């Protein structure tokens, strides 16, 4: 079992966060797990998306909300009071090297963390094509899109994920709904608050006293249970604001 480089939660700008994730996909060699937040708040969009089509650009400009493009696909995410995670590792690490297989294996790690918080979690399973198409009609915000093996709590989405495989390396990152602002997210991503409330649930709604530090400690505990020897990387990210 290789060591896992664990980068504890810290805030960076939207641009720096994406620069760091790209570094771990293209330059890193080991198994990396990172937790981070966004200051100032920002929107990340999938690499094939156009910001004018998925975001309220004028609102973002007026409120100094930066819009950045991810190196992964998926829908738009408003990063306000969320916990973003990133996992990156050599493709050879998992036996099933298909995109679906990688998603499923990573989802098992995330599921372990959520269940350790005593949440009622389920895997949604593989999404049928017609359901995915219907989801695209309902909006292109990440949390409104159905995805394979997404984790549901009380039937609602709690984390949105995106993945990229480049050469012999994998990167998956995602937004965990920690303290979700339904009203402003609806404005920023051109959707409706009621639609988000039907589809999304946040950790703070389920566990009001939970802190980011509490969640991080559960991450560490669960990664150790998977057998990873942890190598803590404090204050040594490749880029800083």
Automatic annotation (TrEMBL):
Keyword Ligase set for record: yes
Molecular-function GO term, any one: lipoate-protein ligase activity
Pfam annotation, one family: LplA-B_cat
Record PROSITE patterns: BPL_LPL_CATALYTIC (PS51733)
Positions of the BPL/LPL catalytic domain: 27-231
EC number: 6.3.1.20
Keywords, sorted A to Z: Ligase
CDD domains: LplA (cd16443)
Name of the protein in question: Lipoate-protein ligase A
Organism whose genome encodes this protein: Thermotomaculum hydrothermale
Gene name of the record: lplA
